[in-house]
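Researcher: Hi, I'm a grad student and pretty new to this. My advisor asked me to get structures for two proteins we've been looking at. I'm not sure of the right format, so I'll just paste the first sequence and hope you can take it from there.
Model: That works fine. Here's the first sequence with its structure tokens right after it:
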Amino acid sequence: MMEAMSETRIPDREDVDRFALRVWQYKQGEVVSLMVHLGDRLGLYRAMDGAGWVTPAELAATTGLAERWVREWLLGQAAARLLEANDDATSFALSAEGALVLAREEDSLAFAAGAFSGGIAPPAIVDALAEAFRTGVGLTFDQMGRVSAHRLARQSEPWARLALVQRVIPALDGVDDRLRAGARVLEVGCGGGAALLTLAAAYPASRFEGVDLSAFAIEHAERAAADSGLDNVAFRVGRGEELAPDGGHDLVMTLDCLHDMTRPDVVAGAVHGAIRPDGTWLIREIRSTGDWSGNRRNPLLAMLYGYSVASCMSSALSEPDGKGLGTVGLPPPAVEDLCRAAGFRSVVLHDLDDPATLFYEVTA
């Protein structure tokens, strides 16, 4: 009887959202677990014990670690409510209770940090992330292994299949008509190819090309393309900074990946050179306000900062001149500044009822 009811009942949207949040909070715990391990392993909690309010620079100097990495870790720990932060999240403190649970291994029966051994990451990746705190240089996506590319591909597929053609493309001025007539489309940071394959099936008159720095992601995309039987889409390993300045693309897309790039500013300039004068650049980026008080309203903020340390910021710092924006490092004002600095005239923000991301329609 209960099974039959679950098959026929249409759940309320708020009930679905609450259930989804419950599930994602378990994922958040998994990610925060890795951050707790790193805090214990790198001596960050011990350095904060009794130190009062400290800045990221002060904690980095005390521990001999890279300040940018320490700052992202501190923000994530404050979002998880394991550390205290001042109003603008420029100083942080470990409470007396927190010290007993997270820092005082030798004299506290409440000490728990030793129970955390890395959470979501395999031991070799945990070791590499700990070293990144020391050197300041992060891991590329391929250094995270094939499993990371596979996980990201699976995560992006439902959105690409159910929202891209149905909700996002129709929100862009004239893009649907152009794709139906036959357009040239490029996705930079295409990952496993789900978005382009969805578009290629929906718009057979158009041609689609995907570029990604990850060889593992391109392998996944090429297999998916072969399985699809589509002949209007192709993928290749490449850098967004090196796009040909041919001004020939009607639509360029960067979907939830600009903040992962070492030089998003250079990529933005390359996109400007690759797009037609009347073309469109579609940007999808993590929903962020750009300030601590606004971001703290997100119940999954600790997960976002944890992902930043483990993946997004790590990738963005994987080269010596990397900007290291981090997962929440491109709020709307920063996206607009980035686009205008690259020569684009118009940046239109679209909030399309996606709880995690915002969309930007950028025109040359």
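Researcher: Oh nice, that was easy. Here's the second one.
Model: And its structure:
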Amino acid sequence: MKKLIPGILLFFMASSCFSQNKDIEAIKQLNHDWIYAYPKNDTATMARIFADDLVLVSPGGAKMTKRNILENVVKQHTISIQIDSAEVRLLSQDVGIITAWIRFVIKDNGKETPGRNCYQDVYVKRKGRWLAVAAHVTLLNMK
């Protein structure tokens, strides 16, 4: 019996680690899909990722809902976007935070403008699906 207990513990630790890696990769993929939906104005992808109660704080401090974000996406002209880095922390088996840095080029009034930002998004697993429930975006100085 004493030999069986360490084996059982090792099994549960390994399966927990596998589950965590799977969740981290799932959140990173959702982040990728969300970010790369901007140049395509792909509101369907964003709507799939966003929880209905999502709240995003924009670089200007505006509180935006899922509806606000989806309405604004079609008005934006993102030329290109690139994720420089993304780090995921799981706070529990149902809550994860991603912190990422990106570079982008937007077109505004016919002029292409490069930019950088960093953001944190909070994901919650609901009914087995990860959904974005909160986000905060900070615009970085270009240097």
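Researcher: Is there anything I should tell my advisor about the second?
Model: You could mention this: The chain has a mean pLDDT of 90.
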